[in-house]
Amino acid sequence: DSKGLVVSFGEMLIDFVPTVSGVSLAEAPGFLKAPGGAPANVAIAVARLGGKAAFVGKLGDDEFGLMLAGILKKNGVSGDGLTFDQGARTALAFVTLKADGEREFMFYRNPSADMLLTPDELNLDLIRSAKVFHYGSISLIVEPCRSAHLKAMEEAKKAGALLSYDPNLRLPLWPSAKEAREQILSIWDKAEVIKISDNELEFLTESNTVDDATAMSLWHSNLKLLLVTLGDHGCRYYTKNFKGSVEAFKVNAVDTTGAGDSFVGALLGKIVDDHSIIEDEPRLKEALKFANACGAITTTKKGAIPALPTEAEAFELIKK
Ligand code: ADP
How confident is the model at residue 2 (pLDDT cuts 50, 70, 90)? Predict the structure, then answer.
């Protein structure tokens, strides 16, 4: 069909979350599988809303890898960019939100298959057919995935794709905060659309203020749209010519996992067929309202992928 393709590049993994809330990993009586990985969530968000999406990344040739490939397929995301490592296993994470509000993580990444994607394994035909190419930063952490990431980004750009970046900071993955900041900023000036959260804004600018001046200190000449998401306060947007905010929808939030990915997928699904939306404030605000609705819906259900909305669900919330 005539819909533009969103290609999302990076990691897909399984989070194991305790069956009961508020416990440490050691105290958990059992775990539930929650498939995710921000770039994979974004691809599924686009597809669930009726758009065309492909995911590019590497999985282990194991039970978990096959499960994840099946989830992409079932959700209508092209797996033409998927490769399977014959040695390393699919990435796994054990994650909990403890009673004191602290998150505790344990990763199976030593290295996991997703980190072993090589530049030679990239499906360049697929990548070059993208109208939007989206990525995070976890794939920047180690080689050979870092080189694959940089090459995929460059090829997509050369072929005319809009580059979209969500750093998706998960600090425990980096050896230090300093390295995380440096790696994220090392590809900062390539992206044309960047979405960060208020926490990431503070982290990247090493400040504790979330205001326009702090956000604009991250502006660069290739950038067309900078978005700062603010949870139940909605989002702020910055372009070369205008800036403003779009308020959130009021919902009963039970689990915010995946809200940002849902927001990004919804926005990319809107701009993929018409990049000029970014330069037209009323249409951009309309698209961001839709993205806020999608983010809000995702907070009303547990997990990320099961909580991503259809277009009908998003319209229903907007009409209310
Ligand atoms: P991230 O997951 O990247 O931290 P946010 O949590 O800010 O991103 O969520 C992304 C978007 O989802 C927000 O801009 C907002 O529109 C929506 N959202 C998130 N949390 C809520 C909430 N509690 N109530 C309503 N909308 C929310």
Answer: confident
Which of 298, 294, 300 is closest to 316 using CA atoms? 294
The ipTM assigned to this model is 0.98
Protein residue with its CA nearest to atom 23 in ligand 1: 232
Q: Is 235 in the pocket of ligand 1 (CB under 6 A)?
A: yes
* pLDDT tens, residue by residue, 233-261: 999 999 999 999 999 999 999 989 999 99
With a CB cutoff of 8 Å and minimum separation 6, the contacts of 275 are 131, 162
CA–CA dist 184, 167 (Å, integer): 6
Q: Determine how many CB atoms are found less than 10 A away from the CB of residue 50.
A: 12
Instruction: Name 102's Cβ contacts closer than 8 Å, sequence gap at least 6.
Output: none
Pairwise CA distance, residues 276 & 282, whole Å: 12
Name all domains of the chain by residue range, CATH numbers in brackets. Answer: 5-11+37-88+112-319 (3.40.1190.20)
What is the atom index within ligand 1 of the atom nearest the CA of 235?
Answer: 14
> Is 261 part of the annotated catalytic residue set?
yes
Strands of the chain, DSSP E: 5-9, 13-18, 31-36, 52-60, 78-85, 92-97, 103-108, 132-135, 162-165, 193-197, 225-229, 235-238, 243-246
- Per the document, the length of the chain is 320
Q: Whose CA is nearest to atom 20 of ligand 1?
A: 231
When pLDDT is averaged across residues 119-142 and rounded to a whole number, the result is 97
Alpha carbon 302 to chain centroid distance? 17
Q: What tokens does 231 get?
A: 């949870």
